Amino acid sequence: MVKNLAMHIVQILPELNQGGVERGTVEFSRELVKRGHQSTVISKGGELASQIEQDRGRHITLDVCSKNPLTVPIRVHQLRNTLHALHPDILHARSRVPAWLAWFANKKLHIPFVTTVHGFNSVSKYSEIMLKGDRVIYGSSSIKDYILHNYAVDESILRYIPRGIDMEHFDPAKVDSGFIEGFKHKHELTDRYIITMVGRITEWKGHDCFIRALAEVQRKHPEVVGIAAGGVWHGKDDYLQSLEKLAMDLGADIRFVGSQSQVREIYSLSNLVVSAASTKPETFGRTAAEALAMNTPVVASAHGGSLDILLDGENGFFFPPNDHEALAEKIFQSLEFGFSNMREHIDASFSLAHMTETELAVYRELTDR
User: Distance between CA 218 and CA 329 in Å, rounded?
Assistant: First the structure.
């Protein structure tokens, strides 16, 4: 049997606006084209849709986002016609609504069907569609445990593929030193030990835990300063105000710098990155992986995808979720610790190239390509 021939892969997801799944889809499409495969992405559209085309993939705009059950028949019909015309080798669904539409549309087409469980979805018949793929990809050991605990699924169809970090972009040699100098000047960070949280301002990210730990550390180490880099999640403006008040009440020295387009440089200028997810675990831990790729050590809450990424006591530390005293203690340790095996570790196991080749191997299990 001849293997490694070019394939046509269709990825389907609700929209292409900012988000980990969306950015991952765009990056994966680019990597497929680089390797000589044909890549098509179906979504309702969004700000990243044009990037698919710029990277020589194809984007098709269909409403695979709406949860309105009354429009399901017509949307299934539209999707079936589209897939029939495309005649892909693989149909890969990355979210529940498009997965349902794809599953119905594919009943007569019989295209090999792959799904990825990107998060800890609510346990329901609605969510169970993500386990109906011929192969089901999960991105962390925690997600696999969640699947097996809550669903009766044939474990032999499950495949572990963590998200991949673009090592060409997250490269310490490529940082914009001018941006870093300007950022440090603007936020008065020169000669400070910078501890950063990168992530949207929303309760489960653990900003409150970070602020409490930061205040404790700064009482002994006033050279330490905190950075919260991330936009405010929809409807969370009051939460941001509560965090600012908490920092003021505790005397924590922290800058809320908002969403940053040059996040690579934010990791680079940081001495330490904290991933403090509290009530809900990170499904992969992209922040931890990106920071390590930039040779910046990480302290992360000990649940979710970070458990697969960090090497505790080597390139980072773990602390119990929502325990600010334990986080403070790990920061104290980090101030004097000699971290190692950061970028090398990510390049070996969590790179975009590694992810692409592993995912292609799963596709080849279902095709003669």
Answer: 12
3-state secondary structure of 17: coil
Please tell me the distance from the alpha carbon of residue 252 to that of residue 197, in angstroms, as a whole number: 14
**Best CA proximity match to 132, nearest among 162, 158, 108:** 158
151-185 burial: b if 16+ Cβ within 10 Å, else e: eeeeeebbbebbbbbbbeebeeeebeeebbeebee
Q: Where in the chain is the domain with CATH 3.40.50.2000?
A: 8-164+351-366, 172-348
Q: Characterise 323 by phi-psi region: left (phi > 0), alpha (psi -120 to 50), beta (else).
A: beta
Give the CA diameter of the chain.
68
Q: Are 115 and 139 in contact (CB under 8 A)?
A: no
What is the DSSP track for 321-347? TT-HHHHHHHHHHHHH-----SHHHHH
What angle in degrees, to the nearest 10, is found between the helix axes of 324-336 and 207-220?
A: 50
CATH number for the region 172-348 comes to: 3.40.50.2000
pTM to 2 decimal places: 0.88
Whether residue 30 contacts residue 112, with contact meaning beta carbons closer than 8 Å, is answered with: no
Tokens found for residue 341: 């095996």
Amino acid (1-letter code) at residue 126: Y
CB 7 within 8 A of CB 90: yes
Q: What percent of the chain has pLDDT over 70?
A: 99
Q: Residues 6 or more apart from 349 whose CB is under 8 A from it?
A: 162
Q: What is the mean pLDDT of the chain?
A: 95
* 8-164+351-366 classified as CATH 3.40.50.2000: yes
pLDDT per position as a tens digit, 97-154: 999 999 999 999 999 999 999 989 999 999 999 999 999 999 999 999 999 999 999 9
**Given this model, what pLDDT does residue 1 score?**
42
Q: Is 122 helix (H, G, I), strand (E, B) or coil?
A: coil
Residue 188 class from Cβ within 10 Å (0-12 exposed, 13-18 middle, 19+ buried)? exposed
